[in-house]
């Protein structure tokens, strides 16, 4: 879910893993010379500190990106033959198609697949070796172990997101209505996340913004907009467990002429992820994104367009039950010199456009969210009080849309909703659009800056 702010305003991994020896190798060594068993274990412990885990749940998708890749490759074959006891073990069930089995039932031990493990990006004034040493630091690994409950919650949400989008990406076809697409996606995600009030569910409404509309559009009841073959649609949805939010998005298009636009934005997102890390300045991430995105161009109807970053859309930090937690990650150079910190969650999202590269509010509003910092405000209208109670019960400080209010039982709520917005209790987030006739694309991942490494939690086989 996009954060909006102008540039001017922006002034265990490697837990102490115990590497299990290959059973056959161990028996052979013990048979020849029992004393060699200890030596082999010692050697293993030396290399374990420099290795990053490359295993993921049912389908491998991680890539370790650090200087010790060659060392990891030497033991990769052995790793493929065995399961790390700290990774999630499946129940033996296989996900259905369409997916119907809750993620918690697929991983009954509560250990969910890790995301992609990477080094922290090089930081201004910080020696590059310092970031790599985090993998082997006993202190950092101990800090990793202290937060395993939080890590498992966010990984649970990530796996629900991965399986939902894997299904929905193949399911969406031109000719479907946007409401049909959103309802199918949301029904699937609710089932997989095991929706349970504010403990587990969707983190914000499904964004399905088309063409010149970059973000914050979801259809209201009665909107019969149809997805066309020539549309470029951004699918942006979130899942959460106990308020630990996965914010992740991708762009769908059916006409191959948009390939260069989409590729440019995806590569810019990857540049932002690579540049991120503990002690990295937010402005340096923005500079890395802009450099990559502006190196791409797309030809449409005989005219060549440079892919422009949308300068007043940003990534953002994420807090418990708070999608925009205070820090913004620009996608152009300049902006805040604030540094990223340990155990922070970030949505690294980039938007590219063939238009002006700047968005404004447009169209009917659908997205709303209770003001996280708003203190008690006296309400005179009884309908406003009732609507606020419904919002508190069903969404808390998570974003919602008009369709979701109706699903929760609200009716004739327009005046009450306007009253809550006028009093600053609830904030409206209208669709954000560039100039008509242009095309916009978006990619986004949620990352966790662990003490030992950077985990791209929402990483999947698709992107």
UniProtKB/TrEMBL annotation:
Biased composition (Basic and acidic residues): 1-14
Cofactor(s) needed for function: Co(2+); Zn(2+); Mn(2+); Fe(2+)
Main localization, broad class: cytoplasm
Catalyzed reaction equations: Release of N-terminal amino acids, preferentially methionine, from peptides and arylamides
A single Gene Ontology CC term: cytoplasm
GO annotation terms (biological process): proteolysis
Comp. bias regions, Basic residues: 35-47, 79-90
EC number(s) reported in the record: 3.4.11.18
Binding site for a divalent metal cation 2: 247, 316, 349, 444
Residues annotated as binding substrate: 216, 324
Entry superkingdom: Eukaryota
InterPro entries per UniProt: Creatinase/aminopeptidase-like, Met_Aminopeptidase_Type2, Pept_M24, Pept_M24_MAP, Pept_M24A_MAP2, Pept_M24A_MAP2_BS, WH-like_DNA-bd_sf, WH_DNA-bd_sf
Keywords, sorted A to Z: Aminopeptidase, Cytoplasm, Hydrolase, Metal-binding, Protease
Free-text function comment from the UniProt entry: Cotranslationally removes the N-terminal methionine from nascent proteins. The N-terminal methionine is often cleaved when the second residue in the primary sequence is small and uncharged (Met-Ala-, Cys, Gly, Pro, Ser, Thr, or Val).
Sequence similarity: Belongs to the peptidase M24A family. Methionine aminopeptidase eukaryotic type 2 subfamily.
Protein name as it appears in the record: Methionine aminopeptidase 2
Species whose genome carries this gene: Papilio machaon (Old World swallowtail butterfly)
């Amino acid at each position: 879910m996009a954060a909006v702010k102008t540039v001017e305003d922006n002034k265990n991994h490697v837990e102490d893993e115990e590497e299990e020896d290959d059973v056959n190798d161990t028996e052979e060594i013990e048979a020849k010379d029992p004393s060699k068993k200890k030596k082999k274990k010692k050697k293993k412990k030396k290399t374990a500190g420099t290795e990053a885990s490359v295993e993921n749940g049912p389908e491998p998708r991680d890539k370790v990106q650090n200087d010790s890749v060659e060392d990891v490759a030497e033991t990769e074959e052995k790793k493929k033959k065995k399961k790390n006891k700290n990774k999630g073990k499946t129940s033996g069930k296989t996900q259905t198609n369409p997916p119907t089995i809750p993620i918690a039932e697929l991983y009954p031990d509560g250990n969910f697949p890790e995301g992609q493990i990477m080094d922290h990006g090089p930081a201004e004034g910080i020696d590059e070796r310092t970031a790599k040493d985090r993998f082997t630091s006993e202190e950092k690994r101990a800090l990793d172990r202290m937060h395993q409950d939080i890590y498992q919650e966010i990984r649970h949400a990530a796996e629900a997101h991965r399986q939902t989008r894997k299904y929905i990406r193949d399911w969406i076809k031109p000719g479907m209505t946007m409401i049909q697409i959103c309802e199918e996606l949301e029904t699937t995600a609710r089932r997989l996340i095991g929706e349970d009030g504010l403990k587990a569910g969707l983190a914000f409404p499904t964004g399905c913004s088309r063409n010149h509309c970059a973000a914050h559009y979801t259809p209201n009841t009665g909107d019969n907009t149809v997805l066309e073959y020539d549309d470029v649609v951004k699918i942006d949805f979130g899942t959460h467990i106990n308020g630990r939010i996965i914010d992740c998005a991708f762009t769908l298009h059916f006409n191959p002429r948009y390939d260069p636009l989409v590729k440019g934005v995806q590569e810019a997102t990857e540049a932002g992820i690579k540049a991120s890390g503990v002690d990295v300045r937010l402005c340096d991430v923005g500079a890395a994104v802009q450099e990559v995105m502006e190196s791409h161009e797309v030809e449409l109807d005989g005219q060549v367009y440079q892919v422009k970053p949308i300068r007043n859309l940003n990534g953002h930090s994420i807090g418990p039950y708070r999608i925009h937690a205070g820090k913004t990650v620009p996608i152009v150079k300049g902006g805040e010199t604030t540094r990223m910190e340990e155990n922070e969650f970030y949505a690294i999202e980039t938007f590219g456009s063939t238009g002006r590269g700047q968005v404004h509010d447009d169209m009917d509003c659908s997205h709303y969210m209770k003001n996280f910092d708003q203190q008690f405000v006296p309400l005179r209208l009884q309908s406003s009080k009732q609507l606020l109670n419904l919002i508190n019960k069903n969404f808390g400080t998570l974003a919602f849309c008009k369709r979701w209010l109706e699903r929760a039982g609200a009716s004739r709520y327009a005046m009450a909703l306007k009253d809550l917005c006028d009093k600053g209790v609830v904030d409206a987030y209208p669709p954000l659009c560039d100039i008509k006739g242009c095309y916009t694309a978006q990619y986004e991942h949620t990352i966790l800056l662990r003490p030992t490494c950077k985990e791209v939690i929402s990483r999947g086989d698709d992107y």
